[in-house]
């Protein structure tokens, strides 16, 4: 039963979203089993493929739903990040005749030709972001098993659905939409959980948020994609991260989120904030804000500092009352938080907040068929 007040505590890892669509939560990422509403025992398709090492879990759930020896007619990918294709090698071994479909612009990352732009831990937001520098970003090579989605927008194995280009999180990210009842599988175009936060990811508290910031390489395109999906007025949104949401609450949160996208989703600082990564035959990357090993040291420093502060606090309580008032060595702090004679402190990331360009093209313009074909010719 759909709810907009669900959490991990009251929602099983596997559940029915709506007739014809079920979800399996694989630790912190979702994958979907989709099939015609009037044929609950198949044929069916798998949408995304979870984390590395999850193939047996995915197959077991498929067998419970559709029976043994009933592979999907196709595997569809919203995009190719490690948490959406991690189990694909194992699944393709078990299902040797099942084709895989993704957007044309995702093929370089699924056929071993290119790595994705590296994740950016400097976007902040929580533990999932700070640890992102260790996430797999190497290209996967599924060879000829991967094909481009049909250019007419149809979805293999799912009559009544169409795929929608929603770039930004990746160059070839897509979402899937069932038009007659407005069911949306949004992938990571937006999420229903604060994906950068380790605590929110664990609790799975429902709330509309943007794409996972640490892997998003083009923020103008990401904003345009959310605007496009909002215009579809989905009744149900099943996302790559977070528990599905529905109804007026979903549409209200989406509409509000779109108006505040740059304020609440676009990071204040980060590698891809001032300039996006681009793919034009040679991947073009803005320079990193901080080297990954420095990010690791920063995380370790925070942990060590927290322990040190705890110990220091215990010692300070023991010495309370011993310090003389009016000591020359005592430096007072003003109400603004600065030392006497100094200017008030201003956080470094507030000095030059990212400003979106009014002339930025929409996702539909930047990722039009003609633009896509120009890029695709770079990958013969």
Short description:
The chain is built from twelve helices and 14 strands. The chain is α/β, with parallel strands linked by helices.
Description:
The chain has 380 residues and is α/β, with parallel strands linked by helices. It has a single domain (8-284), classed as Metallo-beta-lactamase, Chain A. It is built from 12 helices and 14 strands. The protein has helices at residues 55-66, 82-85, 88-94, 107-110, 127-130, 198-203, 219-231, 247-259, 261-264, 292-318, 363-366, 369-376; strands spanning 14-18, 21-26, 29-34, 45-47, 74-76, 100-102, 146-148, 161-165, 174-178, 183-187, 236-239, 245-246, 278-279, 283-284. Helix 1 (55-66) packs across helix 3 and helix 7 (219-231) runs antiparallel to helix 8. It starts with 13 loop residues before the first strand and ends with a helix.
List the helices and strands and how they pair.
Blueprint: E1 14-18, E2 21-26, E3 29-34, E4 45-47, H1 55-66, E5 74-76, H2 82-85, H3 88-94, E6 100-102, H4 107-110, H5 127-130, E7 146-148, E8 161-165, E9 174-178, E10 183-187, H6 198-203, H7 219-231, E11 236-239, E12 245-246, H8 247-259, H9 261-264, E13 278-279, E14 283-284, H10 292-318, H11 363-366, H12 369-376
Parallel strand pairs: 4-5, 5-6, 6-7, 10-11
Antiparallel strand pairs: 1-2, 2-3, 3-4, 8-9, 9-10, 11-12, 13-14
Helix pairs in contact: 1-3, 7-8
